[in-house]
Design brief:
Length: 103
Amino acid sequence: MASSGSSDGKHFITDPKTLVKNSLCGLAIANPHLSFDEQQKVTFTKDLADLRKKQVTLFCGGGSGHEPAHAGFVGYGMLTAAVSGHVFASPTSSQVLSCLRRV
C-alpha cells in the first residue's frame, strides 16, 4: 500500500488540509476541458465564452464529503462550474460568489 500522511497507513492522502485541493487539481489535470481555481476551489469549463452562447450556465456546490463529487459533473451539457467546500462543510459565501461571477 502506498505511503500516506496518516499513521495507520489506511489512506492515500498526504495531508487532510490539502485533500480537496489536491483532488480537484488532479481532476483538472486528467480532464483537459477543465480549469481549477485553487484559491476558491472552483472547477469550471475552459470554454466559458462558447458555452454561454450554447447553453444556460449552471453551477453547483457543496461539501466534499468522501470526495468533491460535484466537480465530476462539470462539462458540456452538464454543469458549467462547481464550487467545493472543505470535507463535510459547505463552500463559503465568498467561494460561491467567486463561482457565480466566473460563470
